[in-house]
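Give me structure tokens for this 134-residue protein.
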Amino acid sequence: MKPAILMLALLGIWPFSSGTEYHISGSRVVPAATAKLKVEQDKQNGNTKIDLKVEHLAKPSSLTPPANVYLVWVQPRGGAPEKEGALGVDDDLKGELKAVTVQKDFDLLVTAENSEAATYPSSVQIFQTHVTAT
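Here you go.
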């Protein structure tokens, strides 16, 4: 009888626990930085929702060499990187970016850039992880 109750309880929670979380450590450029990435597939159109939250991320102007902005990129396997937006950092060294992509299998990159107008990621990578959205 108890296994049946447990199964019913899990089924009641299951529809609300969608998505996958990734925990990412900062690169050698910002070793104290951490990130939590949540991805989930939109059930209506199949797009991938991205919610990236960072902590302990130094402001880009304090890097060596200094930068002006952090940019978030999605790079599909075998494809060119696509800029998703700028990742701001507040006075508590926290930031968040929400975006939507049509990609399902990609690398997520955060880079330090001199300008939001950058068209390709610089070599100064802050975070990188591989994502497979299901």
